[in-house]
Amino acid sequence: MHDIKAIRDNPDAFDRGLARRGLEPQAAVLVSLDAARRDHVQKLQDAQARRNAVSREIGEAMKAGDKTRAEALKSEVASLKEFVAGGEETERLLAQKLADALAVIANIPLDDVPDGKDEHANVEVRRWGEKPVFAFAPRQHFEIGEWLGLMDFETAARLSGARFVVMTGQLARLERALAQFMVDLHTGENGYTEVYAPYMLRDEAMYGVGQLPKFAEDLFRTTSGHWLIPTAEASLTNLVREKTLEEKDLPLRMTAYTPCFRAEAGAAGRDTRGMIRQHQFSKVELVSITTAEQAAAEHERMTACAEEVLKRLGLHFRTIVLCTGDMGFGSRKTYDIEVWLPGQNAFREISSCSQFGEFQARRMEARYKPADGKGSRYVHTLNGSGLAVGRALVAVLENYQNADGSVTVPAGLRPYMGGAERIARP
User: Fold this and answer.
1) Residue 57 to residue 54: CA distance in whole angstroms
2) Collapsing DSSP states into helix, strand and coil, what is residue 238?
3) Peptide bond before residue 138 is cis, with ω within 30 degrees of 0
4) What DSSP assignment string belongs to 314-375?
5) How far apart are CA 60 and CA 71, in angstroms?
6) CB within 8 A of 62, min separation 6: which ones?
7) Strand partners, 49
8) What does the alpha-carbon distance between residue 196 and residue 256 come to, in Å, rounded to a whole number?
9) Are 80 and 51 in contact (CB under 8 A)?
């Protein structure tokens, strides 16, 4: 959510920020909506002030014995009372109209975000590791999983339709091992607090993180009216909604391992085979709540924490900064981490780490008290995948595959796999 006062004070800067995203100017419309609301509020305040003044005049007229004037004034009070009563509903509608307009406008990019229309303008900032070299043609993860007899898409389709998978035995354990490995790293070394939070949220919580109203078609809704979380970000970030924190307690860092549910409404025809794009998947999420001054450094730190998972697994990756045209709706700046998949001969996204500024905090009314004790300020929010567990499993299968179809278990995962060094066909 944007600050209408900031838009009103500097409309040109707001429209320039939107233009960098390839969006049409909005400031004039928003300022007009705000002006109508403010003008109406002023009329209500004037009417209320006049009502109070007239009420006093009625008493004076009665004392003076001027019944005619008193009756005229009473009639005016009644008219003012009726106007105020109806005007309060009008004020609510005008405020809602402005809020609805603001709610669907994307965040403004930071100055150091590269300009561009799409992913072709993203900028690589670093790489780690080397591509593995195979003496055979590497296979894709679904070919490996199906050959092992531990990954079953046909049965999943009979149960649930497309974009689901059933994994058994050592592959099911590998999924769990990866998640536990990630959570242990983030809580044991990276300073995050593990959280167990709801997987189903109400409208206001999904609105608070910017999922609603814009992305309703990408979400699953239950018959109770709850929304299944598309990521633990939605639950974790909302833990500070309608709260005022103390500056000394920031940054606040949280992590959670959860299932995630996405309709993938706009993904028709993309990644139809395998586990890259599923309706149900698991993810370890990282969320930070900071001050404005802490946000940039925290963004770099969070990205490094996500990268460390891949380093510990020995997986080649690159980190890119997304251009203005490829960034998510609520983000001011995003780093994507892309892991190398030999079976696809391509880098694929495995984590996005973003900073949102006050965008989510304004929607959630999440604030903090500065150390100087002067008023309160909106917190800044950040989130990132640390990592997407299913895609990490894909990366392990493809990077650690062997010529005989087996898969070597990375050393860091072996304690979580009961000491197993290899996954082979049963």
Assistant:
1) 5
2) helix
3) no
4) T--EEEEEPPTTTS-TT-SEEEEEEEEETTTTEEEEEEEEEE-TTHHHHHHT-EEE-TT--S
5) 12
6) 70
7) none
8) 6
9) yes
CA dihedral for 401, 403, 406, 408, sign (positive or negative): negative
CA atoms within 13 A on the CB side of 342: 21
Helix/strand/coil for 403: coil
Q: Can you tell me the distance from the alpha carbon of 219 to that of 225, in angstroms, rounded to the nearest whole number? A: 12
* CB contact set of 116 (below 8 Å; sequence gap of 6+): 122, 323, 324, 325, 326
pLDDT of residue 266: 66
Catalytic residue positions, numbered: 262, 277, 349, 352, 391
Q: Are 277 and 263 in contact (CB under 8 A)?
A: no
Pairing of strands 367-369, 244-246: parallel
Shortest CA distance to 102 belongs to which of 156, 170, 31?
31
CA–CA separation, 268 vs 251, rounded Å?
A: 39
What residues contact 14, with CB distance under 8 A and at least 6 apart? 2, 6, 7, 26, 27, 108
Tokens of 240: 């500070």
This model's pTM is above 0.85: yes
Q: Strand, helix or coil at 45?
A: helix
- Does an H or E element contain 258, and which? strand 252-261
Name the pLDDT band for 267 (thresholds 50, 70, 90): low
Per DSSP, 137 falls in state -
For 58-111, what is each residue's pLDDT tens digit?
777 777 777 777 777 777 777 778 777 888 899 999 999 999 999 999 999 999
